[in-house]
Amino acid sequence: MKGPRDIVLLSAMAFVGLLLACAAGADLFSPYSPDFRAETLLLAPPSTLHLLGTDEQGRDILSLLIHSSRVAVIVGFGATLLSMAVGVPLGLLAGWRRGLTDSVVMGVSEVVFAFPGILLAILLVFITRKPSILNIVAALSATGWAGWARLVRGQVLQEREKEYVDMAILAGAGTTRILAVHILPNIASVILVQASFSAAVAILSESSLSFLGLGPQDMPSWGSTLSDGAALFISSPYVATFSGLAIFLSVLSFNVVGDRLRDRFAGESVPRS
């Protein structure tokens, strides 16, 4: 019999799977097109025709949420992967070489950390003057890489003192081989855990930008739907409630998965050589 923690983990993983499925097959799963408008059913409550009701334009809320999952997945995974692509190599080099390289990488990351991430992302979106989904991914990655660099650097500083690294050096392995073949696999669990948390942060940040009107203009998003619904919450709470719930469950699910992965890998201390 599974315990409560197992049930919570399975539920979180199921929701993440559902999110990915909705993003990949939005046209297949949504009952209506996001452009469909029921002109006679504005701000309608949930019914058999519209399971979650309609918004002020007569659009089906469930269909909007399903199509909006594409933005959440693209930004969540896109910003995480791009941040990793920049931060992980920099962290590996900073932790291994130390000295000037370490000082430069950590110095730049300190500058990035000096600014609130969401405010810097807003600034970058304003500079580009076109709040597209690619610009949002780039803006979030411009601040997200610093956390990755610091995390990986700290892990490398610990790993480089271990015996398997000394053996690799004695065997004549070069820096690239030591970092890519020996150290990186041993910190992969930490990277995987952080990736789950980073995806949650990216989804929440994108929703915040969209709520402020700085999200993608050519695609529906949870943040923009929440913004529209907040203004009409008294007369029709369904739009804001369901879009807010989608954001909450997505962020919570990624955080739960990351938390459980961290617990799972916590006891692993034997390096792979």
Q: Given the helix and strand composition, which structural class is it? A: mainly alpha
Largest sheet: none
Say how many strands there are.
Answer: 0
Low-confidence stretches are 269-273
- How many helical elements? 11
- Average pLDDT score: 88
Instruction: Classify the beta-strand content into a percent band.
Output: under 5%
The CATH architecture category equals: Orthogonal Bundle
SSE arrangement, N to C: HHHHHHHHHHH
Structure characterization notes:
- By secondary structure, this protein is mostly helical.
- It has one domain (about 5-30, about 55-265): MetI-like (MetI-like fold, Orthogonal Bundle).
- About 70% of the residues lie in helices and about 0% in strands.
- It contains 11 helices and no strands.
- The protein has helices at about 5-25, 25-30, 60-95, 100-115, 115-130, 135-160, 165-170, 175-185, 190-210, 220-230, 240-265.
- Helix 3 (about 60-95) packs antiparallel against helix 4 and helix 9 runs antiparallel to helix 11 (about 240-265).
